[in-house]
## 1
Amino acid sequence: MDRKLFKQLIEKHQGEIILTEDLYQGNFLGIKRSKVKLSNGKTIWREQITKNNDNSNVVYIFPVTKEGEVVLTMQSRIFTSSGVGIGVPAGYIDEGESSLVAAKRELREETGYTSNKFIKIAEFHQDSGCSGALATCYLALDCVKTHEQQLDGDEFIDLFPVSINDLEQLIEEGYVKSAATLILLNAYKNFRRNDHENRSVCRKFQSGS
């Protein structure tokens, strides 16, 4: 890969926000409009969706228990095709929080599970065409149930632990359509495969073979 060209292209497409104005602010969602100057000299308008009073960054957690089950959440998602959202725990990062602190808090609050083994495995923008929200993803390994759920007043969440095979079947059957859950499942399988390969190498080295 030509990294020099790659970085030049990135710089080529970085625009500049000239001004921003508020169009709408509801209880949770907001809409802003920004005047943007592109590097080719053109000026365009772009609309931005904001959430949670501009504090839109989130964490997703893939919680795996000591028994090897993934703790899924089930809650109302009225605007989806099924009206129900099934996936991994998630939540917004509070002001002043790191993504890791937020991941530990959200796991405990939404599920009552805790873990001492958090591994950051991915970051992605949820919808870069109209939002700057950044999602940070963690594996949480060897989870144990230590608390009761501590849900917000507008939250109603059931827990549904499943095996990896069952989760893959739920995805195949169309019950789980959460993009973050699919990303995290794939990352967990890669992590487990790499961990197994590393352990095999260590055993061969220790045996002298």
## 2
Amino acid sequence: MIIYIVNASPALTPCLESALLKLGNEVHAEIVSNNSDLVLLFNEQGKPDLLVIDDTLLTADASDMLRTVFDGDEDCSFPVIVLFDLFNPNVFAAAYRLGIHDVILTSADPERFFNKIRNLVFVHQKIIHLENTIENLNKKMSSMQYEDILGMCRMAEARDGFLGGHLDRVGHYSAKIAKNMGIGDHECMMFNCASKLHDIGKVGIPDHILNKPGKLTQEEFETVKTHSVRGFEIVRGCQQNVLLDQAKEVILYHHESWDGSGYPYGLRGDEIPPLARIVKVVDVFDALMSKRAYKEPWDFDTAVDYLRKNCNVQFEPAIVDIFLGLVSKSDFD
């Protein structure tokens, strides 16, 4: 537990020293002697778990300073205790006007300060434990939820006639492109997972359309195009986290085209989220290289030529350049 202490009164020093000695390693105290140093402490290290001040900070100027360090936090996310050595009713009035949590007269009750902080330390430890428990539970739920959604995607992948790890290749190459564009390792790892969910909406497309051996009618093609919005609605209904936030962008926009001719909204250029632009390139390339119900796989050079010819049409040129610098024919043999 981190405590900031402002002590400008020598009379309070024995009380503070005694309490900190008893608390030992349970607390880390930063002690300053004036208002300016307290402001500096807030600026450099952020808010504490507890602020202890003496009554000299309740002057008009000091009260303004306190409002500054509270940073507009009306409820104050950390408790504040005022210590004073001699009883003064004005101290109580000034303290409670500022929203101070407690006022302790150390000369009348020197043990109260120690007991108060000991109780706050106990509560703080329980809160930290509860927060960690909730965080771990949310992570577990998010992991289970992602695995369930990914399972649906693999089912859709199999129904769509993809064989040989289309989702894994899209995830792998999308993350490699993102890393090459300067995105951090952790974000790339999340993107690898998120991009695998791009076609989750195809679970709602009938088999006779997904596996039709010939050309789709215009009506059938319009049905297929609904998979972007269908997928977005599936993921939007789940408990949200960073991974699924990325996935929603990819799912909804990975069929938009650089020139505005894509779907579902006809976005163009920088209007398309960057992650969706990346997945667009990898998804199309891998689809061209894969056997489908309606076509044989393309050869590597023909698929590369297709990407180049459709720069500034379907694809962002910079992403195509990065991808072609990373992809290898052996990955598709």
## 3
Amino acid sequence: MPACWPPAIRPRTTGARSPGAQNDRIGDVGTAVKHAGPVTLAALATLLSDIRKRPLLREKSPGSFYVRSKGYLHFHEDPAGIFADVKLDFENYTRMRVSTAKEQRALLARIDRSLAGLESARERR
């Protein structure tokens, strides 16, 4: 790995990952992607506002959401668009494009289904 890569886009080389988890720093074609910065997060203001309405999610840093103490959702910017990495099954990240309003509605629907499963499991206890 070249030492000159900025830390924000340096590929992750250490740390435990769940089996089958997608690398949240490398795109499908091996290009580096970076976590969404302030400009990208500002463009997602309406989406982020909608996500913040979900009581099971806690935003620990701008654009990074957790369920309990586990990372659940964060965003990336890439020349191909804006992407969300979300743990719909609470174990492995799924990358979803969220550049358009339609893609953002699809993300919200998938989040709601994911969280509904968690809420129903909590109610059964």
## 4
Amino acid sequence: MFANFFLLQLRKLAYAIKNSTTIILPRWKEIIELCALTLTSKKKLTVRKMPRDVSIRWNSTYDMLKFSSTYREPINKITDDRSMKLRDYELKDPEWKIVEDLRDCLKVGFFSPFFFLSLTIIHLFMQIFKTVTLEFSTDTPCIANVIPAMDRMHNELRAACNNEEYSPAIRAALKIGMNLLNKYYSITDNSELYRIAMSKLNIFFIR
């Protein structure tokens, strides 16, 4: 799918920059420094290596997309430099739009690697899910907060599905993701632990 293709392009670019310590990496740093001085850079850029996402840490995909969007100008310049031999990783404006849509869709989740059954769907979750992941990664997570968090994610997904600013492909993938979330939401009804936490198992209180 298109989403996975663009993610793969960014991963390969990050790998190439990191592993070419004598040619590409010095040029990358030089380009960032030059871009930081230009008026076209909307944010102050600092010299950083491009992060690469890790399959067992799905939040890292959001971080990679966020970085890529912020450092779009240096990425465009280094992939446009023929001497770097990175033209295969060049992204056009419509492709950058999809990257930015993915980034915007990704900020709330608390999903395990099990959910990587559908990589594209999970990547589309992140603006909607990174915040929740961080909340449930604290020292005192509370099971009673899971259902409200899932409700919040469902509402965010539904709104994103109806957002015509996103491409039809992304909205279709978000719809599939919302259905997957609903599937796991319904399973919580079979768990006494969740029902107790949500004060729905009356016999618990009677006893």
